[in-house]
Amino acid sequence: MVGRHHRSPAPRRATSHTARRALAPFGVASAALLAAAPLAGAAPAAPQQPPQADPPPCSDAADVCVDLSEEQAWLTDDGRATSGPMAITSGSDEDPTPTGEFTVQRKERHHVSREFGRAPMPWSVFFDDEGRAFHSGSRASTSHGCIRLDKDDARDVFTALEPGDQVEIVR
């Protein structure tokens, strides 16, 4: 059948006959004693919980949250991170990335900058009227106000966001 997953049959459990044979060297009395012996002082182990990360520093309305001072971004849903933190690079002092609330305007998978020497800006998600976007690119230097991400993170942001989604950038 196409598209269906098939499970392997579950391993067979030992039958009572097999279990009795395995315990035979210990004798019936020893087996009964082992089965009835309480575990002295043993308390059930508490389940291990992963450490709780701090929630992203944006409002519950944000679909993507950017913290410029921490150089991180998260995809979010109702204030909870669904992806991230992702390392980012943002604008310079001369060309800063603005803070505030923005709306995704458009997306371009293979955008090339006309303003900055035909620089490639793959996985672009534009969020303001000045041409700023999330996009893939080198994080070794500052941008001209865009949010640069590693390739896989930029692709994830591009895939997750749609025009009209909320962008929140804080410092």
From TrEMBL:
Full protein name: L,D-transpeptidase
InterPro entries: LD-transpeptidase (IPR050979), LD_TPept_cat_dom (IPR005490), Transpep_catalytic_dom (IPR038063)
Keywords for this protein: Cell shape, Cell wall biogenesis/degradation, Peptidoglycan synthesis, Signal, Transferase
Pro residues bias: start-end ranges: 47-58
Domain L,D-TPase catalytic residue range list: 62-170
Record pathway: Cell wall biogenesis; peptidoglycan biosynthesis
Organism the protein comes from: Actinomycetospora lemnae
Matching Pfam families: YkuD
Signal peptide (residue range): 1-42
Region named Disordered: 1-21, 40-109
Ranges of compositional bias, category Basic residues: 1-20
Active site: residue positions: H135, C146
Annotated PROSITE patterns: LD_TPASE (PS52029)
Presence of the UniProt keyword Signal in the record: yes
